[in-house]
Write a structure and sequence with these properties.
Blueprint: H1 3-14, H2 20-31, H3 43-51, H4 62-73, H5 82-85, H6 88-113, H7 125-143, H8 149-158, H9 167-179, H10 183-193, H11 200-210, H12 216-229, H13 235-243, H14 249-262
């Protein structure tokens, strides 16, 4: 793809002028590594602007005028003559109707070909919403693979902007919780999973995660979450931490407090 087109897409995105088709194109270019996520800005501002668009209220007299004009057009005529056809009482409604149709056609053509975002997205808000959700998910998964801790924290924070995280997103958060090298990223992933901890699959994975943690901070955070959710089936995993000789005394005290709530 030409560099000019890529720059055009990035500029339109940052200027909040990208339509649904262009959002899809941007998403594909991110997947291919052609567009860097860091070049895209104002995602939330764009979303707020799109969904704040109000549909124009139609004129209440439009239907009445149309049907009145239609009734006049349907008046029966037993005989036809050019003289009567061009007679002003008969010709005026036809001329008015044709003029109105022509004006409406020109206006519709103008607005349909105008790329401004105020006109186009009105009929496809759901499409834009889905494209934005998919783009956020793609950005989140891409950032999680970055070496920078800041990028991975940014990826986890993106889930807070999602109405409902997909299984792919929760799965990525669980993997981050279990495997990320940075404790802060793991704690952030656990916090991001809290809204989805009521889901059976997520809850079971959180229980399994207890035995995979070597960070005291993450162990305590998981224990407190299990106590908060009253997940009694997690007690066995928490007891394993207590029996571990390498577990610090302060951590054992916190775990014991959580176990008292569960048992």
């Amino acid at each position: 793809m030409k560099t000019e087109r890529i720059k055009e897409l990035v500029d339109k995105y940052n200027a909040m002028l990208a339509d649904p088709a262009e959002l899809k194109e941007i998403e594909q270019l991110i997947e291919k590594g052609i567009i860097d996520i860091d070049d895209l800005h104002e995602l939330q501002a764009f979303e707020d602007r799109v969904f704040s668009i109000e549909l124009p209220a139609p004129s209440l007299s439009l239907d009445d005028k149309f049907y009145d004009m239609l009734r006049k057009e349907k008046k029966p005529a037993n005989t036809f003559s050019w003289k009567s056809f061009f007679a002003w009482p008969e010709f005026a409604p036809r001329l008015a109707f044709a003029s109105a149709t022509l004006i409406l056609g020109i206006a519709a053509g103008y607005y349909l070909r105008t790329p401004a975002i105020e006109e186009q997205p009105i009929a496809s808000v759901d499409d834009v919403r889905k494209e934005l959700s998919d783009l956020k998910e793609l950005m989140m998964l891409s950032l999680l693979e970055k070496e920078s801790v800041t990028d991975r924290l940014k990826a986890v924070s993106l889930t807070q902007e999602m109405d409902q995280a997909s299984q792919k997103v929760t799965g990525a958060l669980l993997q981050t919780l279990n495997n990320d090298s940075d404790v802060n990223v793991r704690l952030a992933a656990l916090d991001a999973l809290r809204p989805y901890s009521a889901e059976g699959k997520v809850r079971q994975e959180l229980i399994r995660s207890i035995s995979q943690q070597d960070s005291p901070l993450v162990q305590i955070a998981l224990a407190e979450l299990m106590a908060q959710l009253q997940v009694k089936s997690s007690a066995k995993e928490l007891e394993k931490i207590l029996k571990n000789e390498n577990t610090p005394t302060d951590v054992k005290k916190k775990i014991e407090e959580s176990l008292k709530v569960l048992i």
